[in-house]
Specification:
Chain A: It holds the Pfam family Bot1p. The complex is a heterodimer of chains A (about 400) and B (about 450). With about 400 residues, chain A is mostly helical. Chain A has helices at about 10-15, 25-30, 40, 45-65, 85-90, 115-125, 130-140, 145-160, 170-175, 220-230, 235-245, 245-255, 275-280, 285-295, 300-330, 355, and strands at about 110-115, 180, 200, 260-265, 270, 330-335, 345. The longest helix of chain B has 24 residues, at about 205-230. With about 450 residues, chain B is α+β, with helices and mostly antiparallel strands. The chains are: A mainly alpha (about 400), B alpha+beta (about 450). Strand 3 (about 200) of chain A pairs antiparallel with strand 1 (about 75) of chain B, so a sheet runs across the interface.
């Protein structure tokens, strides 16, 4: 029987200390190993060899193709998706892809607000005393984001006056790595940061409903909302009213949400689903567009009407907030003892039909009630804080 | 909690981490083959690879309870289209709407909402994940450690639970030093040694002070001859400084961090050397404006435009004392720009003995100023746990993106969780490295028995 010559693969697994790139694997295997003590320990271990090969591949890649990704360059998106473009060096940085993950087509690295944009938002809200709604429309930034920027800038200013150390080099590096939305003093050149009129998809619109309607009937979004929430058809007089002046009916709903018609009984009682015009964050923009379609020559008048509608909306919102605050104040009893730093606030617990429900078993109401188990030890109960009040 | 989140190279798993192992795995990851595999097997593979990335620190039962089949989505509304149509166009005809050909085209182009890409959206509410998404930590595990070690506050109160689910409007803030450590390049061996020596010096303050005092004495002795030879070497020093400042501020690709750092060190030393000639003893700890103006006076540098201005003022009294650095340092800090211009005017008014004072253009002055600012913001400090001056760690830009549901202020390392992540036509807000096929498989896996 001729002596068997081991293949490269076998020799690798048998002699893990030999790398796959070694030039003479067979000879070193057949000849006596230089250090006879080290060989017997490793003979039967094959895992480390595979690991070493993979590691060498990895470092090979990191030193060749991956080299381009190592250091950041300002305003060049060094995502894995751009590996080939970066290697070619011919693609201008603006045309590089903003997708960080090559397999996920649906996720893009979206721009963040630049420093001067944040400053501008803070200036308009905190110094010029403009409303968050108005600033949101002017700069095309979401209302929640505007409020957050003001809050964060307020904190930053506080830190600067206190002389706390800031992470300035880190901030600069991030602004260079991530796409940013720049502020332009000319409002016509201002690039929108994000879409400000996002309509959340409502739970009631999930099912597909087959609803027969006569061809002659004008079936609008208002009617569709009523069908989705199972409300009866509107009387003709109301329909005419809405068709004649859609903007005022929408503003009535957005400014007085408690007046919206309700359907259903007991626990199932809900508001009638409103049309998209009323559920978007900036409904007055639609009214403005309607005005400019109807009266294209009265541009100044239209803008005046728009600002009055905006103010009306803000006023209604402020009133609502104040009323809620007053209601809360009414419920809490405040005790401020002398020579104490603290003010104690007490709110009475309520065990009524609203909290216990119709059958008296609802677990929102506090206290032990006969036949109502405590959910304290139930699996999956959340025991860590669920909210932190500001 | 033991870290089971290894990044094996043999069975590539993608993790929420910025390590180079993870980068290598990310770039070579491919969709698993579906040939000859049962639907169950496909779902299993999809779920296991997706879960290795999404919330691997969360136990499976806990995640199963968090999973929700209802996925939040929004539709961006165009105000003009809403105004043009009250909905009756969409329901006209036989109920399917009457559309013009170009509208049909547009409807075809409209992208579908990638609902299943949002499978792991509930995990994005977790505090540790949000910290990682805001680029405050280099991995979710590290973010988790920051929370547990008490470096994170939520709405101004310390929060020690990494599993805290953020509510819309919650503001979380991480200690900036930790963020700089997590995102900065690590120290080299020599830098670690420097830090050790600095620590030892602070531990034995007496010896350190003595040595410093000795150094100072030596320095003063050295400076005396320097000061005598000052008129000759000011121009040379200024030239050298300018060259160094330019290299520091250059954004060329070829400049390696090590080279830049060398330059920065040299620049810092040169500035110190120049400033130590000043009569004011506090100048080294002074604010930037006064340092800058001091530098200008010491080096007799002037602006190019002020040339004729200088000519006019030659008749005025030769008041060398007017450019006293102490007077300048006392200038109000509230108006730095004004202070600077005043300092320059003083410097120009000061009748120069030599006509050949070094002249700098506006851009050169600007470069010098910016180099000084950068040195102040990003100083060399061996006591920090990261390499100084701070620079981003290797391969950081590969993973740098901030999702829309967060608003981050990097200066104070704070962020606001604006809302829950949503899907919109063509886009999902959950950062996931996987394709729709994997996330759909995972979604189907968790849908069972529900």
């Amino acid at each position: 029987m001729p002596p068997r010559i081991q293949t490269q693969r076998v020799s690798n697994s048998v002699l893990p200390y030999l790398s796959s790139t070694s030039s003479t694997p067979a000879s070193s295997c057949t000849s006596l190993p230089p250090s006879s003590t080290s060989c017997p320990h490793r003979t039967f271990s094959s895992t480390s060899a595979a690991q070493t090969r993979l590691r060498s591949h990895m470092f090979e890649w990191l030193n060749s193709e991956g080299r381009k990704l190592r250091y950041h360059e300002p305003n060049v998106y060094k995502y894995v998706t751009n590996l080939r473009d970066l290697a070619k060096d011919t693609v201008p940085p603006e045309q590089l892809s903003k997708r960080p993950f090559p397999l996920n087509q649906n996720f893009v690295s979206e721009p963040i607000l630049s420093e001067e944009m944040r400053e501008e938002i803070y200036k308009r809200v905190a110094q010029d005393k403009k409303s968050v709604r108005a600033v949101s429309i002017e700069l095309k930034v979401d209302m929640r984001r505007v409020a957050a920027v003001v809050r964060l800038m307020e904190m930053e200013k506080g830190w600067r006056t206190q002389g706390k150390p800031l992470a300035l080099p880190y901030s600069r590096a991030i602004q260079e790595m991530v796409p940013t939305t720049r502020y332009s003093p000319d409002p016509r050149n201002q690039r929108p940061h994000e879409s400000i009129n996002d309509l959340p998809v409502h739970r009631l619109t999930d099912p597909q409903i087959f609803y027969p309607v006569s061809e002659s009937r004008q079936f609008t979004r208002v009617d569709a909302g009523r069908v989705f929430s199972g409300a009866p058809r509107l009387p003709n007089s109301t329909v005419d009213e809405i068709t004649n002046d859609p903007s005022s009916s929408i503003s009535r709903a957005t400014q007085n949400p408690h007046l919206i018609e309700r359907v259903g009984k007991g626990d199932q009682e809900t508001q009638v689903l409103q049309p998209a015009d009323a559920r978007i964050p900036h409904p007055y923009l639609v009214a403005h567009e309607r005005d400019s379609i109807k009266k294209p020559h009265e541009r100044g008048e239209n803008i005046k009407r728009f600002s009055s509608r905006l103010q009306e909306e803000e006023r209604a919102e402020a009133e609502r907030r104040q009323a809620a605050e007053e209601r809360r104040e009414k419920k809490t009893a405040k005790v401020n003892p002398e020579d104490s730093r603290f003010e104690f606030r007490f709110t009475d617990v309520v065990v009524s039909k609203e909290t216990t429900g119709a059958d008296g078993r609802g677990h929102r109401a506090p206290g032990r009630r006969y036949g109502v188990p405590s959910y304290e030890r139930k699996k999956g109960e959340v025991k860590i804080p669920t909210r932190v009040n500001v | 909690m033991r870290n089971r989140a290894t990044t094996p190279l043999s069975r590539a798993k993608i993790r929420q981490s910025w390590s180079k192992y993870n980068l290598y795995n990310l770039q070579r990851f491919r969709n698993p083959s579906t040939n000859n595999r049962t639907f169950f097997q496909q779902k299993w593979t999809a779920k296991s690879s997706a879960r290795a990335y999404h919330g691997e620190q969360v136990p499976e039962t806990q995640w199963e309870r968090m999973f929700s089949r209802r996925i939040r989505s929004v539709v961006p509304m165009d105000a003009t289209r809403l105004a043009q149509d009250d909905g009756s166009i969409a329901s006209s005809g036989r109920g399917s709407g009457i559309m013009s050909p170009w509208e049909m085209e547009r409807a075809k182009k409209e992208k579908l909402t990638p609902f299943t890409q949002m499978t792991f959206a509930p995990l994005e509410r977790r505090l540790d994940t949000a910290i990682f998404r805001a680029l405050f930590a280099s991995s979710t595990r590290q973010a988790r450690q920051f929370v547990v070690h008490g470096a994170v506050t939520v709405n101004g109160k310390e929060m020690r639970y990494p599993g805290y689910l953020l509510n819309p409007g919650d503001m979380f803030q991480v200690d900036p030093e930790r963020v700089m450590f997590a995102t900065g390049a690590p120290k080299s061996k020599a830098e670690r040694r420097e830090g050790r020596i600095a620590r030892q010096k602070t531990e034995t303050p007496e010896e350190g002070e003595e040595s410093v005092a000795e150094e100072e004495k030596e320095g003063k002795e050295k400076q005396k001859p320097e000061a005598e030879a000052q008129p000759e070497d000011t121009r040379e020093t200024l030239k050298g400084l300018m060259a160094q400042a330019k290299t520091i501020m250059s954004k060329e690709k070829s400049d390696l961090p090590a080279k830049k750092k060398q330059e920065l060190r040299g620049f810092q030393k040169a500035i110190k050397r120049v400033l130590s000639r000043s009569e004011s003893s506090t100048i080294l700890n002074d604010n930037l404006e006064s340092q800058f103006s001091e530098l200008m006076t010491l080096l007799k540098a002037t602006r190019l435009e002020k040339k004729d201005n200088k000519g006019k003022n030659t008749e005025s009294q030769p008041a060398a004392e007017s450019s006293d650095p102490v007077a300048e340092t006392e200038a109000p800090d509230s108006r730095p720009g004004q202070a600077l211009t005043e300092a320059f005017q003083k410097a120009t008014e000061n009748p120069a003995e030599e006509v050949d004072t070094s002249e700098l253009t506006e851009s050169e002055l600007d470069t010098l100023k910016r180099a000084l600012i950068q040195m102040r913001d990003n100083p060399i400090d061996s006591t920090k746990p990261y390499a100084t001056p701070w620079r981003p760690r290797d391969y950081m830009s590969v993973f740098a993106f901030i999702p829309r549901y967060l608003e981050v202020n990097q200066n104070i390392c704070a962020a606001v969780y604006l809302r829950h992540p949503v899907a919109r036509p063509g886009f999902s807000e959950v950062p996931s490295p996987f394709s729709e096929s994997i996330n759909t498989g995972a979604f189907a896996w968790y849908l069972r028995r529900r």
